Amino acid sequence: MKKITVIGTGYVGLVTGACLAEVGNQVTCLDIDTEKIETLNSGNLPFYEPGLKELVHRVVKAKRLQFTDKYQEAIPGCDICFFALPTPLNEDESSDLSYVFLAAKQLAETMDNYLVVVNKSTVPVGTTEKIRQAIQESLEERGFTIAFDIVSNPEFLREGTAVSDSMKPDRILLGTDSTKALRAMKELYASFSESSDQILVMDIASSELAKYAANAMLASRISFMNNLAGLCEKLGANIKDVRQAIGADKRIGKNYLDPGIGFGGSCLPKDVRALRSMAKKLGHPFCMYDSILEINKRQQKIFFEKILHYFGNLEGKTLAFWGLSFKPDTDDLREAPSLYLIQKCLEHGALLRLFDPIAMPKAKLLLNHLENIHFAKDEYEAAEGTDAIVLVTEWKQFQFADFEKIGVAVHNKVLFDGRNQYCDQEMAALGFDYFSVGRKKVSEMAMT
Ligand code: NAD
């Protein structure tokens, strides 16, 4: 059993802390956001993640997880300290590392024994070394000599499946120059790795870069497919069939080949931009990063234009939006494609009826000030009297919606499917004018 502190209790920090407590460690999750800590201490979660609430309740009840907003309560005596701090982008696309360095200073002001400092935040190559320097300098300012080691341990969890991703990770990256820290980390992660092959040990720079490389690779697959979907529409091919054909190749694989309205969230867009910025600064630019981002942006625009083109003019048209979060099973709205579509539709005079199974409270906070928006209680109410339904996020409950019922509630049977969730023939049979991504309309298909 180790005594662990996780600095930053957001999506990564809270999941990490709860999972480490689940396997028997004594964990303190620390955050400077007092409101967040109060929410957690009152038994609630500041965000939605499947299975997390039950896990947190269990480990809090077992007295293995606690929350605080005070460094003085969380740092002294701990063995391992994780950084799970935000690393947003500055205007020039460089990473804003102020949260990380402030935490390093606050840590150094309160630490009183040897500890392993583990960085889980996604940071440009060289940052973990700079964290070491920042801690060292602060310790010297205090006149203290306390030994510590640093480890880069980038996080690969996906929102929506974060708990299972953390409990059963594909791989665990450990970048360090300390055998002592490595031993401690291998011991800590033993319960999470089925075999020792899953723990990949490397130098700090490689570990930091690997995180960006993984996200850029995933983003490139999505943008590749989105671009190909556009080509399918022009050539009369079906992206679903093309996807199946290429995904069957074991060298390519099936995952991350779904066309749609582009990727969002707090990681993929940010990390591709940060990688591009890092590469440019080093005189090693790569036009592929530009293309990934450009295609992603264009994909949302093309989808909006599909809607606009259908109506000619959106003035006074009522649209139902199904799904607002950047992907299903999360309430995270950061860089969600829904936000762009909402903005464009409102600019063109549309009235919107919005529904998301989980993200409504966050959406209300973000969008309440806007006019011509109605927040619906479910997908059926959202569809009432509308000129079209726009499927933005592929939540499971939308997949099984009762379209007979919906067909009666809507003003016009029109469906824009931004995630290719539905069978085009079934939608046509239900009498819907159905538009998706990279597929011809059923009425345009040649029949024999
Ligand atoms: P988040 O914004 O949800 O949480 C970060 C938390 O840190 C916030 O609660 C904030 O109040 C707190 N914080 C800021 N400064 C602090 C300080 N000085 N001391 C204590 N707490 C402080 O962020 P996140 O989504 O958990 O991401 C954290 C890092 O992990 C980022 O670098 C991100 O790129 C990376 N990452 C995120 C995901 C994801 O799916 N969200 C996945 C992999 C990696």
| Strand count | 14
Query: Mind summarizing the main beta sheet?
Result: 8 strands, mixed
Reading side by side through the largest sheet, how are the strands ordered? 3-2-1-4-5-6-7-8
Low-confidence stretches: none
Mean pLDDT equals: 96
Instruction: Report the span from N to C terminus.
Output: 68 Å
Helix content: 40-55%
Shape: globular
CATH structural architecture of the largest domain: 3-Layer(aba) Sandwich
CATH topology of the largest domain: Rossmann fold
Chart the SSEs and their pairings.
Elements: E1 3-7, H1 11-22, E2 26-30, H2 34-41, H3 52-61, E3 65-68, H4 71-74, E4 80-83, H5 98-110, E5 115-119, H6 127-142, E6 148-152, H7 162-167, E7 172-176, H8 179-189, E8 199-202, H9 204-235, H10 239-247, H11 268-281, H12 287-311, E9 318-322, H13 337-347, E10 351-355, H14 360-367, E11 373-375, H15 379-383, E12 388-391, H16 396-399, H17 403-409, E13 414-417, H18 424-429, E14 433-435
Parallel strand pairs: 1-2, 1-4, 2-3, 4-5, 5-6, 7-8, 9-10, 9-12, 10-11, 12-13, 13-14
Antiparallel strand pairs: 6-7
Bound molecules: nicotinamide-adenine-dinucleotide.
